[in-house]
Amino acid sequence: MDNRTKRLLYLIERDFEGSQTKFARAINRSNAQVNALVKERKPIGDALALNIEKTLNLGIGWFDIPIEKIEDQETQIENVANSNSTVNSQSSIGLIESADTTIPLDRTEVELPLYTDIRLKAKNGFTEDIQNYNNQNLRFSRLTLSKNNINPSYAICILADGNSMAPAIPNGAAVGINCEDKILRDDILYAINHNGLLKIRILRKKSSNSVLLQSYNTNAYPDEEVNLEDIIIIGRVFWWSAFI
């Protein structure tokens, strides 16, 4: 069960006395739609999570705050024990740490490149326009990436530039991108090349030749409808992290 579903169950139990019906009424959804989310037949996408957060005044990014439960901690401890690894427990349960080149890479870990300064050209690819790479990396658990269907060979990290996705993804946050996942699906968070500008946006297809770009910071960055031919999907955002 993913973190957002756990948060959803916690929310229904905490604020709606465990009643899916009351929760569905509060967010203006049908019982069937809520039940599909609870049973994980339908994922809680970025747009839906944002809508619920705003409707219930939870604070933007509430669904992505890691939930802490005893059973989760026990599962994490068990995973560490089964890994036969000497790395610290944070790496083993899927969190990241800055790569120290003096520490050998453990077999359970993988390093993803961290690009700190990116320049894109309209209609061009991604990696050919990267500058100031400086051999920086972040370390992730191989198992965690595998469970999320992420091939490390096609995954990278960048630094968010600007506050269009704040407060969930503040300026300077590290963001993980799966460059192998470029298929446009509604209400999913992507990194895109928009006429030479790197943007992180929720995408929603409007017609056969147009797409809606949505930000978390809607006051400063209102929805923007653009032609499909004006964007290139770099990849799906699968992770982000920042100090607050």
From TrEMBL:
UniProt KW keywords: DNA-binding, Transcription, Transcription regulation
Keyword Metal-binding attributed: no
Family matches, as CDD domains: S24_LexA-like
Domain Peptidase S24/S26A/S26B/S26C: 125-238
Keyword Magnesium: no
Molecular function GO labels: DNA binding
InterPro entries tied to this protein: LexA-like, LexA/Signal_pep-like_sf, Peptidase_S24_S26A/B/C
Superkingdom field: Bacteria
Classification via PANTHER family: HTH-TYPE TRANSCRIPTIONAL REGULATOR PRTR, PTHR40661
The protein, known as: Peptidase S24/S26A/S26B/S26C domain-containing protein
